Amino acid sequence: MKLVKRITKLIITIILIPVLYILASLVLTLIPINSDPDNSDKKKSIYLNSNGVHLNIIIPRDQIDTNLLAGLKYDGNDQYFSFGWGDKHFYLETPTWGDLTVKNAFRALFMKSPTLIHLTKYSKTRKDWVEIKVDQNQLDNINRYIDNSFYYDSHNKKGLLKNIGYTNNDDFYEALGSYSFYKTCNSWVNTGFKKSNVKACLWTPFEFGLLYMHKK
């Protein structure tokens, strides 16, 4: 009987952990911070986009500061730069959800692993992007936050992974930090907004919270 009770408790615990995680995430996602009112100083535009799971911060090229722009691969047609952050193995080995494996998901969530910045370049805006008005100080902070997420080598160069990308308009760069169940690709974007005094969630591993806040 003791063995049965122990097994039962273990099963309940295994079930409760993800349930509690989701509930806590939903509550904290719905708590806004930096809810500053619109003002006339917000003359710059950045954007949010999502593939349904991953958020990215998009900045017009002429609004990217020289430090962040330095070392990035682009050409004259690239006018909008989309930045995402995530687990290296997950990015490279799981280009679509059909490629997702239990091993990759477990490694990304629970094991210390290297990360990448995913840069995608566009020639024009897309209809599904969410525009966010920011002032110059907020824009400078976002630029700095993204730049500080890149890994720089001993020659102070960004670590481009050559000839690796999903299409001909995206690239991967070595990044700082480790992905986890607490620090996800979406919480990376959210943290950037929090540190830049842009409206954000208290904490979120999901993509819908920020999108909802800025669509309103």
Account of the 3D structure:
The protein has 216 residues and is α+β, with helices and mostly antiparallel strands. The chain has one domain (42-215). The protein contains seven helices and nine strands; from the N terminus they run αβββαβααββαββαβα. A seven-stranded antiparallel β-sheet has the order 6-2-3-4-5-8-7. Strands 1-9 form a two-stranded antiparallel sheet. The longest helix has 28 residues, at 2-29. The termini are far apart.
Question: What is the element layout, followed by pairings?
Answer:
Elements: H1 2-29, E1 32-33, E2 44-50, E3 55-60, H2 66-69, E4 80-87, H3 88-93, H4 102-110, E5 115-122, E6 130-134, H5 136-147, E7 160-161, E8 170-175, H6 185-195, E9 200-201, H7 208-215
Antiparallel strand pairs: 1-9, 2-3, 2-6, 3-4, 4-5, 5-8, 7-8
Describe the structure in brief.
The protein is built from seven helices and nine strands; from the N terminus they run αβββαβααββαββαβα. It has 216 residues and is an alpha+beta fold.
- Into which percentage range does the β-strand content fall? 15-25%
- Terminal-residue CA separation: 55 Å
The tally of strands reads 9
Kindly name the structural category: alpha+beta
* Radius of gyration, in angstroms, nearest whole number: 19 Å
Percent helix, as a range, is 25-40%
- Biggest sheet features: 7 strands, antiparallel
Tally of individual helices: 7
Mean pLDDT across residues: 85
The low-confidence parts are none
General shape:
globular
Query: Secondary-structure element order, as H and E?
Result: HEEEHEHHEEHEEHEH
Order the strands across the largest sheet as they lie in space.
6-2-3-4-5-8-7
